[in-house]
Amino acid sequence: MSVPAASRRPWYRHLYVQVLMAVALGILIGWKFPDTGRQLQPLGDAFIKLVKMMIAPLIFCTVVHAIASMRDLRQLGRVGFKTLLYFEVVSTLALVIGLVVVNLLQPGAGMNVDVGTLDPSVGERYGKQAQAQGFVPFLLNIIPTTLFSAFVTGDLLQILLVSGLTAFAIGGLGAHREPVLHVIEQGTELFFGIMRLVVKFAPLGALGAMAYTVGAHGVKSLGNLAKLMGGFYATSAAFVFVVLGVIAAGSGFSIVRFLVHIRDELLLVLGTSSSETALPGLMQKLRQLGCGHSTVGLVVPTGYSFNLDGTNIYMAMAAVFLAQATNTPLSVPDQIALLAVAMVSSKGASGVTGAGFVTLAATLVVVPKIPLASLALLVGIDRFMSECRAITNLIGNGVAGVVISRWEGEVTAETVRERLRGKAE
Known about the structure:
This protein is mainly alpha-helical. It has one domain (12-420): Sodium:dicarboxylate symporter (Proton glutamate symport protein). The protein has 20 helices and no strands. Helix 14 runs parallel beside helix 19 (382-407).
């Protein structure tokens, strides 16, 4: 049923319009008044901190309720298997596409960068973080020090582990299961309510973040290393409209209409460079389409650790770009090894700004042919790259939520199409 004209909100009341205006104003302030722009950084940082404050309890409640609500363990296993299989196939495809495109474009060819002239402190700083994320430490780090420390650090994998254990424990409570589930459900509503209040400040966060970025790096930074940035943005767009578009079409809905449906969340990510800021809104938008609460609660939070399509494209392109820029030869076996390492290192990178850069460093540590010091080449433009990474990650997880719900028979293609057209009751 369409919304009566009298009850429609004015255009300026829509969040996506407010965020878009804030982004434009932030760019203008950073360009014309760079000192003022740099001083507005706390607005963006404060907003992201407010969102991160709510992510852990939100994911905990949604995952616990999703798993504990599935009375049939076979259903949980089926949904979990389909989800992880989908994530692995699509994220690996993103890595492969990134490698193919960067080899075709050759954005770093001819730069002839002397690694000795670069600031080694950048590579050392991120290299230490990356070395701390070796494979065995990575596995051990999934286990939090205490039950509650996962909520203090905000580590998504730790939160998922605690959530899963809690959900299975609730499933064994017998007669007490339903009352506990009811409490979890009410907690979810409470945290979503708090998040709705926080998101009202999104335009201020977007204004501060964009003003700082342009003020600190200069408007010319938007054009620095343009070939790599342009190639990355074009590859991500092609991945969304071709790869995810084909997947969406196969599930009976249009990727373009889906993007319109989540436009608020896309612009929120554009302004903040963090896909975590849009997590609650994305989950609500998927439920509006008819996707099952349990499936959305399981697929989307898990996807934030295991289905980072934008980060995968970035890692593949950035690593080979650095090799090209420093005249480091990479054979086909070297690039296959790079792909294999990236498939592992990308898991657990959250949607927080800069996480993709640390993950890239982790990949270069394991593939030492590419000089770690060359990371200094990407520092100036990483903020702009992170926006595209986060947006692509968000879209990928949104499409995954609908696709898995369709595979589970929770919603028909007709219902999804109708609700995307805005004709749902």
